[in-house]
Amino acid sequence: MTKRFTLFNTTHSIMGITVIAVTLFLISGCSKNEHSIPSKPKLILQITVDQLRGDLPDRYLENMGEGGFRYLMKNGIWYANAHYGHTNTETVVGHTVLATGADPAVNGMISNVWFDRDTGKLAYNIEDNRYHILTTGADIDESTEIDTSQILASTDGRSPSNILVTTFSDELAMFTNGRSKIYGVSVKDRGAVTLAGHAGKAFWFSKSSGGFITSSYYYDKNPQWLDSWNALEKAREYEGKSWELLFNEYEYLFNGEDNRPGEVDISGFGTVFPHSYGSADNPNFNNHLTFSPAGDELTLDFAKYLMESEKMGLGDTTDYLSISFSSTDYVGHIFGNSSLEQEDNILRLDRTLANLFSFVDEKVGLDNTLIVLSADHGGPENPDYWNSFGIESGYVSPDEWDREPSITALKEQFGIGEELIQEFFPPYIYLNREVIEAMGLDLGEVEQAVADELMGIKGVALAISSNALKENRLPDVPLIRSALRNYNPKRSGDVLILFQPQYFINHFDGEPVSCNHGGPWRYDSFVPVVFAGGRITGQRVYREVEPLDVAPTLAAIMRTKPPSGSRGLPLEEVIQGVKNSE
Fold first, then answer.
1. Cα 86 to Cα 93: distance, rounded to the nearest angstrom
2. What fold, for 394-501?
3. pLDDT, position 509
4. d(CA 322, CA 329)
5. Which fold has domain 43-386+521-576?
6. Which 8-state DSSP code applies to residue 475?
């Protein structure tokens, strides 16, 4: 049957055009359904909120306004049961899955950091020593940076070269022969670079300079508008101010529970409101901004400036802007997801989203914009919070494993007098292969022996040897499938470690934190997936979907090729979910 509707209003639309129904293959084994071909948006706005667990918007909804999360809930297709299917729920891993529709095993981003056997060096996910940042004095300050994965980078170079497959934004760029404007913005470099893909341009926040920066992969020199925004010194506007509660404390779910057990004070930011940002001359000033909603506010201000400067969404082809908001992740790590700080942060994020949507509506029109919102991973509770409800929870210390009696006995058994466990970068242990090879030992045998011994350590749920994954001699159960989806033979370590539910590492390279994500458990895998804008009809969907369905869905709407490594499938409700369809 022929259907008439317009998904997106554009000034170039022909009134009354008849849209012919087409067949879409949505999932394997399902019958073919006819759907109308949607008109294309002027702007795709992909929003990623770092560590936004799927329940948090509903949990704190009561004090939210109408223009942010409520707008998405009322007007968007909200997938309320979306879970990642891989083991290592870390930042770069989730962002790259959203970008590519591919599992980490295929897209290559298996962890924030891995050990490169070819070079014998650590590899930070988007590090590339061929392409250096363009702003002098904006590199990582190791004395104040709490993100240990960035500290482990040996150069300031950044690019998407380590992503092994195409992203949706790459496919859009090729489909339009480079006519689409494609940008990625985030406080975190990996939050910007991944979604911008190989063909777009990325900008991220420098805690050293207080401005946004980019690398020579994208430009020979900074665009003029970037220097103009940085000259405004927006970060300094927070000098002498504090993060204070948005409402009276009695209006909060966590009223009277500021400074809960397990919250940590990093660099003097404190554990109770108000949290002072301090002087702009304090080396930790910009860190403090990112520990709070101020980081998201700066990201939004920069993204709006970019949109106006590049006239995004005003041309004849679809443009793409990715914005990754990072503050929720920092707040979750430092204070926990069940804290007064996280509650206030989510309420302020709601206002930031409302501000963004209002701006986009004014400049481009929400009817002309496709909005996609998700998260790179969820997050756990603080162990003290779990324990207060009688739920067992605790911390693990992998840096002590090589000295465990069982591992010490194993080294004696194999005649190894040096460290057997060379490195641990979640979720992988890298063994000292040089010693193993020098002694003529079988690597697979040593891997399995180490895995067997680690299974006896409190807090470890499962230890799997790389050899067992490679030979696929494991039972077909969900945990093993998630491990296989994370396993890349060139980058993954020798033994994969899964912690028990409610157990995790409690520090960043010695800097204590309240809690840490990174496992396959439902609190870490659970995120929202939302499509809104245009004439999409609001609905809530409870069937289980995966975030890797996002990129193939965007490809289906834009009629591009799917990203080259994608396993995800177009979400049927989004393809169908159009007002005025008959």
1. 9
2. Gyrase A; domain 2 (3.30.1360)
3. 54
4. 17
5. Alkaline Phosphatase, subunit A (3.40.720)
6. -
- Burial of 28 from C-beta contacts in 10 A (0-12 / 13-18 / 19+): exposed
What does the block give as tokens for 156? 């300031």
3-state secondary structure of 576: helix
Q: The tokens of 113 are what?
A: 């950091």
CATH 3.30.1360.150 segments of the chain: 394-501
Every domain range in the chain assigned CATH 3.40.720.10: 43-386+521-576
SS3 381: coil
Q: Which of 98-102, 170-174, 273-277, 573-577 has the lowest mean pLDDT?
A: 573-577
Calculate the average pLDDT of the chain: 91
pLDDT at 28: 36
- What lies within 8 Å, CB to CB, of 237 at 6+ separation is none
Distance CA 396, CA 387 (A): 16
Number of residues that make up the chain:
582
> Which tokens sit at 547?
């975030």
CB-count exposure of residue 77 (10 Å: 0-12, 13-18, 19+): buried
State which amino acid sits at residue 368: N
Give the 3-state secondary structure of residue 311: coil
* Among the listed residues 278, 281, 307, the one whose alpha carbon sits nearest the alpha carbon of residue 294: 278
What is the arithmetic mean of pLDDT over 326-335? Answer: 98
Helix (H, G, I), strand (E, B) or coil at 21: strand
Mean pLDDT of the 252-266 span: 95
Q: Which residue type is seen at 369?
A: T
DSSP reduced 3-state for 491? coil
Higher pLDDT, 460 or 151: 460
Q: Which two tokens stand for residue 286?
A: 């910009």
Return the amino acid letter for 450. Answer: V
Cβ atoms within 10 Å, residue 141: 17
Alpha-carbon distance of 238 to 274, in angstroms, equals 13
State both tokens at 144.
Answer: 């104040």
Strand pairing class (77-83; 539-541): parallel
Using the Cα atoms of residue 404, residue 410, residue 412 and residue 415 in order, give the sign of their dihedral. Answer: negative
Name residue, tokens 């909804």: 61
Q: Answer whether residue 10 shows pLDDT above 60.
A: no
